[in-house]
Each structure stands twice: as C-alpha cells, then as structure tokens.
C-alpha cells in the first residue's frame, strides 16, 4: 500500500514538473494572422524607386483604417514601424524568412521608429535609410501596441509594390579608379618585360 502511494506521488510530481515546463499562453508569441489589419500605412517611396543607404530618406505615415469603428484604437498606446524584406529578397534566404509568429519573424529586421500612438491625427516619421541596411527590396510594416508593449494590430505597405535599397558596399569610387590604374599598369609592365626577354633571347 505504501509502495503504491509512493508511485502515485511520483506520477503526480512528474505531471506537475511537465506542466511547469510548458510555455504559458502569455509567453507564447503573437501571431500576425491573429491581429486585425487595422492600420493604413503609406510611404513616400514609390514602387521600384531606389534609395541609397546612408544617403536617402523616406516618409512613412499611419492611421486607423477607415473601415474600423470609431474608438477601435482606444487601447493603442504605441506604434512601432519596421523595414521588412519583400518576398523577392527573401527567396532562397532563410535568414530573411517571414514567420507568422512575430517573435520568430526574420523579414522585418530593421527598426524605423517607435513612438506613442496618437489617435487624434495620422502619425508620420521621416526615416533616413540606415547605413547598415543591405541591398534589397523592402516594404514597411507598422504595429500598434498596448500598454504592456504587446502587438494588438498592424498595417503595412504592399510587399508586391516594394522599393529598393542600394546598400553600401564599402568600396569607394576612388578605390575603384586606383584599382583600375594599377591593373592597367600591371598589364603594360608585363608586356614590356615580355618584349625585353624576347629581344634577349633573339640576341
């Protein structure tokens, strides 16, 4: 009898430990598909336009979608905007892959802005394309957040109408010119020595 009770106690303890190891609903990631697409997001960057990292800027604006009922954004306390890789720049690149779980998403890697949400008027921000943004096609996504900072709604520009960013390669024009000059010089020097050696052999 005592042995049976010990076995039962061990089973209960194992069950409690297993339950404790499972992630709680609060700790689970927020899924994009579960959020209402309640924000209208627009940008000054035109589809196909090329912006140069570290040089050019764009303006992004957001507001409550006109189809949402009045006061639908009463719980929105903040907004955060991200620069996201468009599908064309995700292809064959797992490190840029979109994920429905926002905490695991790799497409929206670049922070544009994070600020308080103002319901009275559309929000706007001028973003200078950061120097570390690599070449690729991009779109913009905005999240509305609640008082705890959790995402509660979103909106985005069309991923299929993306704009392009020309990243900084680290090679300046002066270096390219110098490399070209040295390459030409090496070819001329090689030809010169070839002629000298040929004349020596003939003599």
Automatic annotation (TrEMBL):
<dbReference type="InterPro" id="IPR016605">
    <property type="entry name" value="Transptr_NO3_Nar2"/>
</dbReference>
<keyword id="KW-1003">Cell membrane</keyword>
<protein>
    <recommendedName>
        <fullName>High-affinity nitrate transporter</fullName>
    </recommendedName>
</protein>
<feature type="signal peptide">
    <location>
        <begin position="1"/>
        <end position="28"/>
    </location>
</feature>
<keyword id="KW-0472">Membrane</keyword>
<feature type="transmembrane region" description="Helical">
    <location>
        <begin position="177"/>
        <end position="196"/>
    </location>
</feature>
<dbReference type="GO" id="GO:0010167">
    <property type="term" value="P:response to nitrate"/>
</dbReference>
<dbReference type="GO" id="GO:0042128">
    <property type="term" value="P:nitrate assimilation"/>
</dbReference>
<keyword id="KW-0534">Nitrate assimilation</keyword>
<dbReference type="Pfam" id="PF16974">
    <property type="entry name" value="NAR2"/>
</dbReference>
<comment type="function">
    <text>Involved in nitrate transport.</text>
</comment>
<keyword id="KW-1133">Transmembrane helix</keyword>
<comment type="similarity">
    <text>Belongs to the NAR2 family.</text>
</comment>
<keyword id="KW-0812">Transmembrane</keyword>
<keyword id="KW-0732">Signal</keyword>
<dbReference type="GO" id="GO:0015112">
    <property type="term" value="F:nitrate transmembrane transporter activity"/>
</dbReference>
<dbReference type="GO" id="GO:0005886">
    <property type="term" value="C:plasma membrane"/>
</dbReference>
